[in-house]
Backbone:
């Protein structure tokens, strides 16, 4: 897993709002209120789809009440998105030279490596 439970809980709603009409809602509003636009979180969204692949045509789940925002501010969202981007690029490099990425190569949410 790349994301924390808190991140997945929030992204369940945020990704749903971004892919289902009327496109927006409480999670989107929370992100906008701290200055985050949809394009600022593309790697977070990629990690969400990787950690929790959809089992139906719908991505995520609707909610009128948004889960707690797992990041303190816009800078924290951008920093976390950048961490995931670096992991994604590392995975792509490994795949391009046919070296499988080991579970122990995936950094834990706090930046440490997971035990493998």
Residues:
């Amino acid at each position: 897993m790349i994301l924390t439970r808190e991140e997945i809980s929030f992204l369940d709603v945020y990704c749903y709002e971004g892919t289902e009409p009327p496109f927006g809602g409480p999670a989107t509003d929370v992100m906008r209120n701290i200055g985050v636009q949809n394009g600022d979180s593309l790697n977070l969204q990629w990690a969400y789809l990787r950690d929790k692949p959809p089992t139906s045509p719908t991505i995520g789940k609707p909610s009128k009440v948004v889960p707690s925002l797992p990041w303190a501010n816009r800078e924290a969202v951008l920093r976390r998105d950048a961490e995931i981007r670096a992991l994604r690029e590392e995975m792509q490099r490994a795949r391009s030279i046919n070296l499988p990425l080991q579970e122990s190569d995936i950094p834990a949410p706090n930046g440490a490596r997971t035990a493998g």
